[in-house]
Request: fold
Amino acid sequence: MPVMSEAVHVSDLTRKFGDFVAVDRVTFDVSQGEIFGFLGPNGAGKTTTIKMLTGLLRPTSGSARVAGFDVNREIPQIKTRIGYMSQLFSLYADLTVDENIQLFGGLYGLTGPRFAERRDWVVRMAGLSDERRRLTAELSLGFKQRLALGCAVIHEPPILFLDEPTSGVDPIARRAFWDLIYDFAAAGTTVFVSTHYMEEAEYCHRLALMNRGKLIAMDRPIALKQALDEPILRLETDNTPEAVEALQQTPGVIDAAMFGRAVHITVTDESTAPDAVRATLAAAGRTCESLERITPSLEDVFVSLVRREGGAVIG
Amino acid sequence: MSLSRLWAMSRKEAIQLRRDPRSLALAFLLPMALLLFFGYAISFDVKDIKMAVLDQSQTQHSRSLIEAFERSGYFRVVRHIQRYDDTDRLLGRGDVRLALVIPPRFSQDLMAARPAPVQLLLDGGDANTATIAKNYADAIVARYSVTVLGGGAALTLPVEAESRVWYNETLESRNMIVPGLIAVIMAIIAAMLTALTIAREWERGTMEQLAATPVHRLEVVLGKLLPYVGIGLVDVTLAALAGVLILGVPFHGNALLLFGMTLLFLIGALGLGIFISAAVKTQVLATQVAMIVSFLPALLLSGFMFSIETMPIVLRIFTYLIQARYFITVTRGIFLKGVGVQTLWIEGLAMIVFAIVGLTLATRVFKKEIA
Reply:
């Protein structure tokens, strides 16, 4: 009997496409009931990892167990025990809400009263009680995604894989979607979710940062931010790109990067750096509208970790 | 293999089919249109061939030869010309297919019991019609000669062939075309309809969701196959009814046998379509490949249009790989000859082989790996 304390156990998992190493010796564990996040830019290897764990893609080397079953040898057992939702909406747009639910209920082997009960649950959960006979194509993206989630968990799987589930939906729908994810986790479901939204990453219990196929850090979001010991300054100026360029050369500045309209500057010493920054700006003829120390965001952590690895962020 | 998953797939496929006007038209309108089009418009029979006559003899003899042509039913004299040069113009423009030139000395030669040549000029642009027209004309001239030899009375030749055509007594090409056409239509429908089915799932991204469920690939292939088998059987019924009731084609055989054979044929043809769809993964390409590997061979190499016996040896060997070849033998046999399993079992066996190969290919190539 497989031991179920670890929902997912991954060891040296690797996938190559020709010479390109999409996932490079990744190792981690996910415990039962945990919301485990995969954060990284597009092309970092998040989706490839998820596809290997859901049996959609064969690993080139390494091993992984999902719900106690081996992804190299026991894919059929894994597929009955997981729910999977891909980053693209992948229900049938030309079927109605009910017909989609019926299809996936059938594919997961639900019949009779149990199917009826689960179908009603999915409809209620997705908030589509009055839209059951509508074509899925006519629903808004937020509702489509809730329905896709419902179809993915219709068989009540212990482990749920969500590959960038909220890409493209508005922040309110995204928040509502995360409320559902918390409900699943509270009920004991393990949730494995990938994202490139930093704010979304903050919702996860534990976070793995991925870049260029490698796992570069893994911890609770708060711990990741606390571990970043270099101070970060936030600057507002009149010409952000030029300021970034000028600041790259300033002594005491490790890195300067654009964050929306502002510049985040990683410095060696919090006491001397502000004066050096102001001097550089003045010399370059740029204004300094505000300059303050901030708590690093996950994005700062990510950028800083990638820089330490000596690589560039792709995506 | 789970029946509930198979049923879920089939049901979903049937619903999608029902909502897709393009597939519906392909499934039901195209066969009827093709059947009526081929049945009415295309005929391999040669009748009422237009001909011109240059009668330089202007005698009783020459007039009765011309009359013999007209009476045959194969020719219709549309022009009487005066100058030899006119034949060139009329044949060149395609106004007539054949010109008969009777020289001035025709009657004298006949009376003197000398050979009396007449000239037949044929438009060889359509070699098929020209050959048939030439055979008819030769026969008419020969029969006329016999009459002349007998001095107008019937003369019996020592040896005479009494020919009788079996199975299609009136030699109507329509009777050959319609049963053959049913086979061709089935080949087109099967490959074209299914060519879209898996490629569409790849293009729309639904394949990924499907692949993440416990559904087995054989369940996907069979589940997709079932609704199309249903359509195929409805089509063959409609086409047979239209052939018999509207086009007047005889049906001598057993309808159940036709259904059984159609089922075998469909499994192979649909399997091939699904194989193509799964292999190329885009709808446009799948449609094109399906046209090339199913429709064209079914039309050209199955014996439907061109007789297999007269093909070059390389093509003839190749026709054994064309599934429609066997099905055409079956439909023609059942419609025209009323033959049963004892005659058609070889074709049945061949189609079982195709069905197994088709399903195996479709299932094999259909990997659930999503890169």
In short: The longest strand of chain A covers residues 6-17. The first helix of chain A runs from residue 46 to 53. Chain A touches chain B at residues 17, 51, 54-58, 76, 79-80, 82, 84, 86, 88-95, 99, 102-109, 111, 148, 151-152 (CB under 8 Å).
